[in-house]
Design a protein that fits this description.
The protein is α+β, with helices and mostly antiparallel strands. The protein has a single domain (about 5-120), classed as predicted glycosyltransferase like domains (Thrombin, subunit H). Helix content is about 20%, strand content about 40%. The chain has 2 helices and 9 strands. It has helices spanning about 95-110, 115-120, and strands at about 20-25, 30, 35-40, 40-45, 55-65, 70-80, 85-95, 125, 125-130. A hairpin with a 2-residue loop joins strand 6 (about 70-80) and strand 7. The radius of gyration is 14 Å and the shape is globular.
């Protein structure tokens, strides 16, 4: 089986990375306790506060320290919410955040760099190229 087949036909490689994540809805804001993995399409995380499936939210991925760090801001929708955590699918991302996320994934992936790059180039932003 090829490397892409090993990914269970996922559109993007997921990387196990623990970064600070803040999730905001109209009613609440909270920090993730831990991130499980991250991809160009979403984030899986553990949090004390779980949101119901289909909840719209804003996600900020904080890299570095305080004001000196980089923030990746995306909008998303909760796709899975279970006792062990939740998965948020990214639905909107600005160009700067897209580029930061792309670089973060390419530099931290255990997958061959060319595969991650191919996944990114087969999409227009978050959508598969037609």
């Amino acid at each position: 089986m090829d490397k892409k087949g090993d990914q269970n036909l996922r559109e993007f490689t997921r990387i196990p990375i623990n970064v600070k994540v803040v999730v905001k809805t109209e009613e609440s804001s909270f920090n993730a306790t831990k991130t499980v993995d991250l991809s160009m399409k979403g984030v899986s995380l553990v949090a004390d506060h779980l949101l119901p499936v289909d909840t719209k939210c804003a996600v900020s991925i904080l890299l570095g320290n305080g004001d000196l760090g980089i923030t990746i801001d995306v909008k998303g929708t909760v796709r899975r919410s279970v006792e062990s955590g939740m998965a948020i699918e990214f639905t909107e991302i600005d160009l700067d955040s897209y580029e930061y996320l792309q670089n973060l994934l390419m530099h931290n992936s255990r997958t061959v760099h060319d595969i991650v790059e191919e996944e990114i180039h087969s999409h227009v932003g978050l959508k598969r190229r037609v």
